[in-house]
Design a protein that fits this description.
ten-stranded mixed β-sheet, alpha+beta, Aminopeptidase
Length: 350
């Protein structure tokens, strides 16, 4: 019996070491690749792939295969409707600004869930900036409730945040689902709108909201006839631009564990008309810490290790890293040289 226990203990240690080594390799690749294309085992029997700008980085055959996987998940989620905007179009232009997180069955390769983020160019205080839109999330109904949300909603944002030198990044979300509104409100910093009494619409929020609605409606499938209430950040009549199949009643929309978000959505949104919240916030060290400690499973050793690294960086290294990097803007500081141009499209792009 003692020998069996010792063997079992060694097996658990080896498994933990393998997971730690895999997570270390994952972060090294994330920090070294110019365009992210990473695969990680995030759940038992599941592989997660994160692909940045597939419309630029993937050859046509592989891009078509990726789009087919996304459509396969969508067909299981919305069997009677077909989405026509964004990554589902198969066109390289929307896929060039997308960051796709795809979860597949490790044995069969069958796609079971995905998130498609989009990077939007905006203007903030007269200077070019970027907002990363949380985008469309779809999960095969057969695997819902298996704890995939921490990967689909936060992991890619965390990878981008770390890859960008831990600089705060603006994030956006368009939703009528209380569970999603609550996830955004609890994970990111300076989120507006929110039921939090401390939530305030800053001038930065207003600039970004106006620019997103003016220039990027097609990213989240909102048609030109939709209105925008700047005081409440509510998009009215939002489901007319290719996202019609996603419209829900309040009864059908998944609820958040915090009743404040459910009541907030019921009060602010007209579900018969088809309204959405436009939420804008930031991922920063505070948001990354909240995500790691509240969303990543506690039993995950890599998650706990990452939390410790983030806390250490916050206290010791972050100010020095930002000060020494003269290639990117930070606050009032400007880069020594202009930013490099975006990479050219893949040779097989039309």
């Amino acid at each position: 019996m003692a020998t069996l226990r010792q063997f079992d203990r060694r097996g658990r240690l080896r498994s933990g070491y393998d997971r730690l080594r895999g997570m270390g390799a994952f972060w090294l690749r994330a920090l070294s690749q110019p365009a992210i294309d990473l695969t990680l085992r995030t759940h038992a029997g599941m592989q997660t792939r994160i692909v940045e700008s597939p419309g630029l980085s993937l050859p046509q055959e592989e891009l078509a295969r990726l789009v087919a996987q996304l459509r396969a998940v969508a067909a299981k989620t919305l069997p009677q409707d077909e989405l026509t905007y964004g990554v589902f179009s198969g066109e390289r232009e929307p896929l060039a600004r997308a960051i796709v997180t795809l979860i597949c069955d490790e044995t069969t390769g069958q796609p079971i869930a995905f998130n498609a983020l989009a990077v939007m160019d905006v203007t903030l205080d007269g200077a070019p900036a970027e907002v990363t839109h949380l985008g469309l999330v779809m999960v095969d109904p057969q695997v819902r409730g298996q704890g995939l949300s921490w990967v689909l909603y936060g992991l890619t944002a965390l990878v981008l945040f770390v890859r960008d030198g831990l600089r705060p990044k603006w994030m956006s979300s368009v939703t009528q689902v209380p569970a999603v509104a609550g996830m955004v409100g609890e994970t990111f910093s300076d989120v507006f709108p929110s039921p939090d009494p401390a939530a305030r619409r800053s001038f930065a929020h207003l600039q970004l909201g106006r620019d997103i609605i003016r220039r990027h409606r097609q990213v989240f499938g909102v048609g030109p006839e939709a209105g925008f209430d700047e005081a409440r950040f509510v998009i009215t009549n939002a489901y007319t631009g290719g996202s019609d199949a996603l419209k829900k009643t309040f009864a059908d929309a998944p609820k958040h564990r915090d009743e404040r978000y459910n009541a907030f959505c019921a009060r602010e949104l007209d579900y018969d008309r088809g309204d959405d919240l436009l939420q804008i916030g930031r991922i920063d060290l505070g948001g990354a810490r909240r995500y790691l400690l509240s969303e990543v499973p506690r039993r995950s050793l890599p998650g706990l290790l990452a939390a410790g690294v983030v806390l250490g960086l916050q206290r010791l290294l972050l100010p020095l890293m930002h000060w020494l990097d003269d290639t990117r803007p930070f606050g009032a500081l400007r880069p020594r040289q202009p930013p490099r141009e975006s990479p050219a499209p893949h040779p097989e792009a039309p």
